[in-house]
Amino acid sequence: MKPLFEETNLKLLDLSQRPYYLMFCIQRWLNLVLDLFVGALAILLVTLAVIMPSSTSAGAIGIALFNILGFDEGLAHLISSWTSLETSLGAIARLKTFEVETPAEKEPLQPIALSDKWPATGHLRIANSTASYTKNNTPALDQISLDIQPREKIAICGRTGSGKSSLLLTLFRLLELDDGSIEIDNINIAEISSDLLRSRLIAIPQNPILFPGNVRFNLSTAKLDDQIVKFALEKVNLWGIILENGGLDADMAAIPLSQGQKQLFCLAKAIIRKDQSKILLLDEAMSSVDPHTEELMVKIIQDEFVEHTVISVVHKLKTIIKFDRVIILDGGKIVETGRPDTLLEKEGGSFKALWKRS
Q1: Please, are residues 182 and 189 in contact by the beta-carbon 8 Å criterion?
Q2: Are residues 86 and 159 in the same domain?
């Protein structure tokens, strides 16, 4: 398998470097042509000086030869600068095209004003929702309908490309619906500004995102009591390593955190925000952590988010047993749903087939 990856990587590397190689060849050819042109001028000058020796002086010929050599360098610099300018203008043109042709997010004309406690219950209703990434393409989600009750813990499973992450994207309106609706606490999210909607949902992504700055800034941009921050870090077993490396004012980049510890850090951010929303979304948040970290994250979510509606895209199926309901997606459609223990007893079921393969 490793030689195959190396061969594929070398092919892609060669393909990416092909334009640079062609440009390098053209530049070398240009330098050769300019040198030949200047050489021809120098030969012509010397020939005229030999044929007509009385028409000029030795000093004038020397100055002329010196100017010709300088003309070669100046002409090459002029052409190189011109081509660099054209390349830069091409990059600017592509940025302009991207800015003009990339569709902007659809914002409601009159966004709904929400209370500070929304969503207060975490009731989620998805009705006949269809979504696709491009027009005239196979929909990523096809007529999805779900009614998720407050405090319910939902696991979303399926093969790669089944629409699991696309479903979460629609909840953040990062993927707009072609048809149907999504309501949270009886409010259609299409009538809410996207920035406000995303600020009211708690999410833990698959890849932890850490920003430049200190630990306190990465945990929350709001001014919080240090005891609250310390409590969250203690819950995820990170306070010790952060304290050793400078505490809350330490630069985030200077703290040696593993991949699993970075994911626990994101969980600490979710704990700090748990009173701001009743919905927690996880996009394969435990797919890249070791079994010990996975068990710790599951226990923390069970203890700290009892009152929350939890929707988790699950990659490792052994944690699914602790969820209230499992939803199996395939081809953008719901093919099976129910309690995990019940689905495991269903012969020929999609969930049981996934369980056996895992």
Answers
A1: yes
A2: no
Instruction: Quote the Cα angle for 327-160-350, to 5°.
Output: 40
Residue 76 located in a structural domain: yes
Question: For residue 180, what are the CA distances in angstroms to 104, 127, 336?
Answer: 20, 6, 20
**Mean pLDDT split into 10-residue runs, the chain, 358 residues:** 78 86 83 82 80 75 76 77 83 88 80 85 90 80 89 87 86 88 90 88 86 83 76 86 83 84 88 88 81 84 88 79 85 86 78 75
3-class secondary structure, 80: helix
- Which residues make Cβ contacts (< 8 Å) with residue 42, sequence separation at least 6? 65, 68, 69
The burial class, CB within 10 Å (0-12 / 13-18 / 19+), for 270 is buried
Cis before 108 (ω within 30): no
DSSP 214: B
- pTM, 2 dp: 0.71
Token pair for 264 = 């626990």
Range of the domain at 16: 2-101
Residue 326, beta-bridge partner list: 155, 338
CATH number for 275: 3.40.50.300
Closest C-alpha among 345, 355, 326, 330 to residue 152: 326
Q: Do the bridges between strand 141-148 and strand 325-330 make them parallel or antiparallel, or are there none, so unpaired? A: unpaired
The reply to whether 352 falls in a domain is yes
